[in-house]
Design brief:
Elements: H1 2-12, E1 17-20, H2 23-29, E2 33-36, H3 41-53, H4 55-72, H5 75-87
Parallel strand pairs: 1-2
């Protein structure tokens, strides 16, 4: 699914995201995304409209998303995981 592939890039670019509602994604993106049932187009449309109509919500989600990227998904943290993986191969 395209949304999942680009979620981290969107957050890094300070863009709010709408993402599939699952326990994993709720845990990863709590506070910086709106969650939808991917099989309910009206739910998706409502969340898109909510973002379009609410500047404050867009800004809040974007800010929190960028903070998440800077604190948890930055290259320094990810490079350590990668180096550990290489050591264990």
């Amino acid at each position: 699914m395209q949304i999942m592939h680009n979620a981290f890039e969107y957050l890094a670019a300070r863009l709010p995201i709408i993402i599939s509602d699952s326990a994993y994604w709720r845990n990863e993106f709590a506070g910086c995304a709106l969650f939808v049932d991917p099989e309910k187009p009206k739910d998706i449309a409502n969340k898109i409209l909510r973002l379009l109509e609410n500047d404050k919500l867009r800004s809040k989600l974007a800010k929190r998303g960028r903070e998440l990227m800077e604190k948890h998904y930055n290259w320094e943290k990810e490079s350590n995981k990668l180096l550990e993986l290489y050591k264990n191969i």
